[in-house]
Amino acid sequence: MAEALARRLGTGDAVVIGLGSMIGAGVFAAFGPAAAAAGSGLLIGLALAAGVAYCNAVASAQLAAQYPTSGGTYVYGRERLGEWWGFTAGWGFVIGKTASCAAMALTFASYAAGGSLWAQRAAGVGAVAALTAVNYRGITRTAGLARVLVVLSVLALAVVVVAIAVGGGRGRVQGLPFGHGGAYGIAQSAGLLFFAFAGYARIATLGEEVRDPARTIPRAIPLALGITVAIYAAVGVAVLFGAGSAALAASTAPVVTALHGAGAAWASPVARIGAAVASLGSLLALIAGVGRTALAMGRNGDLPRWLESVHPRHRVPDHAELALGAVVCVLVLTTDLRGAIGFSSFGVLAYYAIANASAFTQTAEHRRWPRPLNAAGLVACVALMATLPWRSVAAGAAVLTIGLIGRFVLHRRSSRILSSRSL
User: Fold this and answer.
1) pLDDT by residue (tens digit) across 225-268?
2) What is the DSSP letter of 5?
3) In angstroms, how far is CA 230 from the centroid of its own chain?
4) CA-CA distances (angstroms) from residue 197 to 53, 122, 193, 363?
5) How is the chain split into domains, by residue range?
6) Burial of 228 from C-beta contacts in 10 A (0-12 / 13-18 / 19+)
7) Beta bridge partners of 9
């Protein structure tokens, strides 16, 4: 019998870990694409994204209580809906989080590197290469580092909000409550801002490490999400007031743009440092997480078995992490920040749509939240996927389809090999 993990974490610890997973580079990047979609209506989009995040988080928590193992919705979908649904969830996670890696690298470059667009892309590729090398040697972000990163991010955002409030905004917050994009634009902004909440279900994976998980996890999830929503709302109002939706929509570094618009350029270095630190921390954790998901899928034959390799010395999924690093470098060189965020949101929303569908099938003895909440989460995820920028939807649907075809081919080939050996 495998040794259990120690139950050392209380509600406060779980909340801090949840905040560390949510308050990262996304908040420094997502307001620009959201403003392009909805103008000042992005604040309503933020509220919608938070509601969808809550539905997804409680579904994940409920499933984690019944299936306390690694793999997330890749496992839940297989157990509740069947292998193909589990694969779709896992593949959606891999492609969505791979795009998130590119978005984090581009965010780092837009805040930390000056010069031309290609100079920024080069900086992004350098960051990916460096952090892939770090992960390859078995060094991952610890819980202590997560706390440091969240403190630095929150402090940087607090300075931004105060600096804009003191400096006085020049932006014109027009068109409330619907902004210039109407209801469709608000829905699209919600799908894009959903990217900023990535990681909120991290608390649901702590079932084996928290004291009294049946009580702690349901308390910690809404607390962490509520604090994050409050911080994001304050930042959203501040950047709109500082720069206006038009300037935000045209910027790849919206927080710095808002500071300059409010006459508080003196605080720009703080925002740049905060965004760079958060981006690197998020990128480091994403490379580790996606690599291990690809490893698990390779072991099950859902991705090429070449990816199941583990380095004999460093004990990391070496092939998976090297392949991921190469793909992310290509994306950094060929896509833009809005495209990466949209594609990431598509893949992750597909992942959580299956999580909600899986939770909907759970029986009464495993149910902690009402079934209509799962139905609402499923419908909302599908709706937000459909309202993302059409290029993101087309690319996401195409890559999902390619993954499904690839799995069919791999399994058919494996079946033929097994049949020939049995003759």
Assistant:
1) 888 889 999 999 999 888 888 888 888 889 999 999 888 999 99
2) P
3) 18
4) 7, 27, 7, 28
5) 11-413
6) buried
7) 210
- Written as one letter, the residue type at 76 is Y
Closest of 108, 290, 124, 110 to residue 199, by C-alpha: 290
Which residue is listed with tokens 């069919």? Answer: 408
- Per residue in 65-74, pLDDT (tens digit) is 788 766 778 8
Spacing of C-alpha 375 from chain mean position:
22
- Pick the closest to residue 195 from 341, 94, 92 (CA basis): 341
Give the separation between CA 124 and CA 104, rounded to whole angstroms.
8
Give the burial string for 88-109 (b: 16+ CB within 10 Å, else e): bbbbbbbbbbbbbbbbbbbbbb
SS3 string, 326-343, reads HHHHHHHHHCCHHHHHHH
* Radius of gyration for the chain, computed over Cα atoms and rounded to the nearest angstrom: 21
256 Cβ contact partners less than 8 Å away, ≥ 6 residues apart: 111, 268, 271, 272
Alpha helix positions (H), 250-370: 254-261, 268-299, 318-334, 337-360
Q: Look up the pTM and report it.
A: 0.83
Length in residues, the chain: 423
For the 11-413 domain, the top CATH level (class) is mainly alpha
Asked if 56 contacts 356 with a C-beta cutoff of 8 angstroms, the reply is: yes
With H, G, I as helix, E, B as strand and everything else as coil, classify residue 389. Answer: coil
Range of weakest confidence among 66-70, 184-188, 290-294? 66-70
How many whole angstroms separate alpha carbon 242 and alpha carbon 308? Answer: 49
Give me the amino acid identity at 285: A
- Other CB atoms within 10 Å distance of the CB of residue 256: 24
**207 CB neighbour count, 10 Å cutoff:** 20
CB 46 within 8 A of CB 236: yes
CB 352 within 8 A of CB 377: yes
Torsion of CA 68, 403, 199, 278, to 10 degrees: 140
